[in-house]
Amino acid sequence: xxxxxxxxxxxxxxxxxxxxxxxxxxxxxxxxxxxxxxxxxxxxxxxxxxxxxxxxxxxxxxxxxxxxxxxxxxxxxxxxxxxxxxxxxxxxxxxxxxxxxxxxxxxxxxxxxxxxxxxxxxxxxxxxxxxxxxxxxxxxxxxxxxxxxxxxxxxxxxxxxxxxxxxxxxxxxxxxxxxxxxxxxxxxxxxxxxxxxxxxxxxxxxxxxxxxxxxxxxxxxxxxxxxxxxxxxxxxxxxxxxxxxxxxxxxxxxxxxxxxxxxxxxxxxxxxxxxxxxxxxxxxxxxxxxxxxxxxxxxxxxxxxxxxxxxxxxxx
Amino acid sequence: xxxxxxxxxxxxxxxxxxxxxxxxxxxxxxxxxxxxxxxxxxxxxxxxxxxxxxxxxxxxxxxxxxxxxxxxxxxxxxxxxxxxxxxxxxxxxxxxxxxxxxxxxxxxxxxxxxxxxxxxxxxxxxxxxxxxxxxxxxxxxxxxxxxxxxxxxxxxxxxxxxxxxxxxxxxxxxxxxxxxxxxxxxxxxxxxxxxxxxxxxxxxxxxxxxxxxxxxxxxxxxxxxxxxxxxxxxxxxxxxxxxxxxxxxxxxxxxxxxxxxxxxxxxxxxxxxxxxxxxxxxxxxxxxxxxxxxxxxxxxxxxxxxxxxxxxxxxxxxxxxxxxxxxxxxxxxxxxxxxxxxxxxxxxxxxxxxxxxxxxxxxxxxxxxxxxxxxxxxxxxxxxxxxxxxxxxxxxxxxxxxxxxxxxxxxxxxxxxxxx
Lengths: 316, 420
Known about the structure:
The structure holds two protein chains of two kinds.
Chain A (H helix, E strand, L loop, with lengths): L2 H29 L7 H16 L14 H23 L4 H21 L1 H4 L19 H28 L1 H11 L1 H6 L4 H27 L10 H13 L4 H25 L5 H22 L19
Helix pairs in contact in A: 1-6, 1-9, 1-10, 1-11, 2-3, 2-4, 2-9, 3-9, 6-7, 10-11, 11-12
Chain B lengths: L1 H25 L1 E8 L6 H20 L7 E8 L4 H13 L5 E4 L3 H15 L2 E4 L6 H7 L7 E3 L4 H14 L4 E7 L2 H16 L3 E8 L7 H8 L5 E5 L2 H13 L6 E3 L6 H7 L8 E5 L5 H14 L8 H18 L4 H11 L5 E3 L3 H12 L4 E5 L2 E2 L12 E7 L2 E8 L1 H11 L1
GO biological process, one term (chain B): amino acid transport
Family (chain B): Belongs to the leucine-binding protein family.
Keywords (chain B): Amino-acid transport, Receptor, Signal, Transport
């Protein structure tokens, strides 16, 4: 398996990894209205947590416990839960734009800690030589990638089903109630503060899970992976796909990442060689333009939130 | 959405079909390059891309490689590893490149190496990634020998700079460095070396890129009253730091990293403030090898090739193409095995430019050994794919960048031995 198929497998691994992050953000923003602008920070905690737990022992580093990959990912998720709990308790009383600024700052702080805490994260050098799970069992990189795609797709599928079940449960309806009118929700005896914290932690744990899967696939992690641009990419995926809809979140992740990645391929094919050094700028403009056009024609995203109307209201 | 997605794939498929149809007729070998055309390295990225293209153009004018014309494909990594890795994967899987040139930042080159080029057995040569983690990875066997870089690592650079600082009699040196893998490791090496030679390092201050002002960092570095400053930076930020350092009364004894050898830096700081400064860069030995590159750069671009990464990128592309010519086929593993046959050694020296490549092709056709002496002088790769080479010491004279001194390999080796 080579050529376009091999690339497609590679592409889907990355896109589905991002889809898990987008589903986490969708739970927070789409269903509960929490404006988390620090997505990349929790992705980073999951990635570094996993990398430190599974990495090989090195003299100059604190980490390198050489644990099995699933343990590493679970550890990264646990670390994310703790971090989200602390951040959540400190910031969740803030409303939308204030919460956005606070979480944005926290994500930048997390990236700077990764850049400067050399004995734990390897600093700017990053952590190299991380083992890729079960890599030795496959005879070719292509078949390994196919296996890893299976793993990521299974995890993304499980997350999708779990979230679909959760948001259709009574708990899920409370999320929307908190999003639409917190005072009304409180008057019905619900505790919005607790709900917001639960959702924030749960969403961030999903981001951490994706971070762990990313590390397992790339085998390397450095602070450069966690620049704020990634937060905006994730947000673009959610908004374009349709927030408040898990299928929209997955579609947005695949669609926007396809646009991001394949616009470069298209430009390198279409542009004369002499203008290649301008190709990068054209690509960035094209990405922005296509996202704007999509939103003009589909303001609620490609697959928007479906109306939730009580079955007791009858036909209209 | 589905339609958008489908049309994306179909679009890519059509493009694919179009190009494979063309390649059957006139035999093209693609060479891929992943560089930062936009993003934080954009200021230097597109010129580096042009340097790679120049080497490819020269080779095509000399008759192509392995019987085919070379098709240079430049992709942007936007300064992000995820975009860079994806671009590299398309180059390797769809464009079928046997060689990948790049990337600029180590944080982009390394994930490309581990997740794309090594698994696909594609030779990767970088012009610009200086992190020592590549050497560590190569020693563990993590690169499979597919990794090379044409710019020297920080170890010899730091050693030579520290030796000169000691010769000049600096006793207290402050360090301001960019907070990246490049800056941190070069600064740390320099600190260790200069301390061994008896000088004191008063402070080591990291700065983050693209800020409007670095007063806080400069003030911190001034605290220990140093008599010299080692500045590890890129031209734009470096100029901001140097201006503030001098205006706050810092010493004019500046020690500059290789990336600061740029006209832009000298102009924005002011040449009159840089008379005491010295810095290091890859030596470009005088004579045909360098002039061939400089002249053809000037011919196509209209300016002198002063800027980071231009010479090393040209050499990265040239070494890759010569190795492919020697191998006789566009195969990543064969290219890897032939890189050392066309560099180092005792073969007939060949220089950059159309004439040089014509000569190289003729010698290879006759089965004679060649030795590429490039835009950065003679190149020898060690077992980890690293180069050590001669260096030049630059400074500012009569308002312009000038070469103050040259260090050949023997002199560099002797200086490093003293530091062991």
